[in-house]
Design goal:
Blueprint: E1 10-12, E2 15-17, E3 29-31, E4 34-36, E5 42-44, H1 46-52, H2 72-81, E6 86-90, H3 96-104, E7 109-114, H4 119-122, E8 128-129, E9 142-148, H5 159-168, E10 170-177, H6 196-203, E11 208-210, H7 212-221, H8 225-230, E12 231-236, H9 238-243, H10 247-250
Parallel strand pairs: 6-7, 6-9, 7-8, 9-10
Antiparallel strand pairs: 1-2, 3-4, 4-5, 10-12, 11-12
Helix pairs in contact: 2-3, 2-7
Length: about 260
């Protein structure tokens, strides 16, 4: 019998009520007005949203940008890194990095997804809903995928599904930060922390290797300590690129087209 019990999720004033649990691990609770579910997705309470509204909303924002943090210096470096390329962000929150990169005009196209059930409504369509613990063949495939501080929220039992979604969303590679802080160090639902060496090992069977120089570059850009410590650039190997029909793209360096 599968360890995952079916869960009825009811949205009441943007709060999620959990009716089931994942066996073998604590993965649901509340943190600072955010409610996280057994799959790692979040819901924002009305109170949290109102408290998080920005008084000086930026161009393209929905007014609730302050509900999620933005490392502006890193976002600027990401815009340069993605110059002329297409991007698919997985776990984008309310789309702050998308807004920053879009406003720079550097990326050719940038699509964003998040697990918030009503994220499309909250962001006026800037971010679309997707559950990364469910195989989603319709994810937009871009040159690069981006996923910052997302994977540690997803239980290990869904890891292979997460990797399939990551793999189908990029042609060249992914920029990822996967926190190594567990639930004893964070109250934000970190049920599946990983060290950078573990991330490299997990990506290897999928045909990815770390671009250490690119990782170092982005870490020097980051101002948030957890991003400075954890961000990595994983590139598809030439073999993996040939397998997926993207060998002609492999020779393109980030920021050049």
């Amino acid at each position: 019998m599968a360890s995952l019990l079916r869960c009825a999720v009811v949205l009441v004033t943007l709060e999620i009520v959990l009716c089931g649990k994942v066996g073998g691990g604590k993965s649901n609770g509340k943190s600072n007005g955010k409610t996280f579910s057994v799959t790692g997705t979040w819901a924002l309470s009305e109170t949290f949203i109102e408290k998080s509204r920005c008084s000086n909303a930026t161009k393209g924002s929905s007014g609730i940008d302050c509900a999620y943090k933005l490392d502006a210096r890193l976002a600027t470096c990401l815009a340069h890194f993605f110059r002329g390329l297409t991007v698919t962000e997985l776990g984008a929150g309310v789309g702050r990095y998308k807004t920053h990169v879009d406003n720079s005009g550097m990326a050719r196209e940038y699509v964003a997804y998040d697990g918030l059930l009503n994220v499309a409504e909250l962001t006026q369509g800037r971010v679309q809903h997707v559950d990364l613990t469910v195989d989603t063949p319709t994810l937009r495939r871009s040159d690069f995928a981006l996923s910052l501080e997302v994977a540690e929220h997803i239980p290990a039992m869904f890891e292979q599904t997460l990797f399939r979604n990551i793999d189908r969303s990029n042609r060249l590679g992914i920029v990822i930060s996967w926190s190594n802080m567990g639930s004893s160090q964070s109250a934000h639902g970190h049920v599946n922390p990983k060290r950078k060496s573990q991330v490299r090992q997990l990506f290897a069977p999928w045909g990815y290797v770390e671009d250490r120089n690119a990782s170092a570059y982005l870490r020097t850009c980051a101002t948030f300590l957890y991003l400075k410590r954890g961000i990595q650039v994983m590139r598809r190997t030439a073999t993996a690129a040939n397998t997926s029909g993207t060998s002609s793209l492999w020779t393109i360096s980030p920021g050049r087209r």
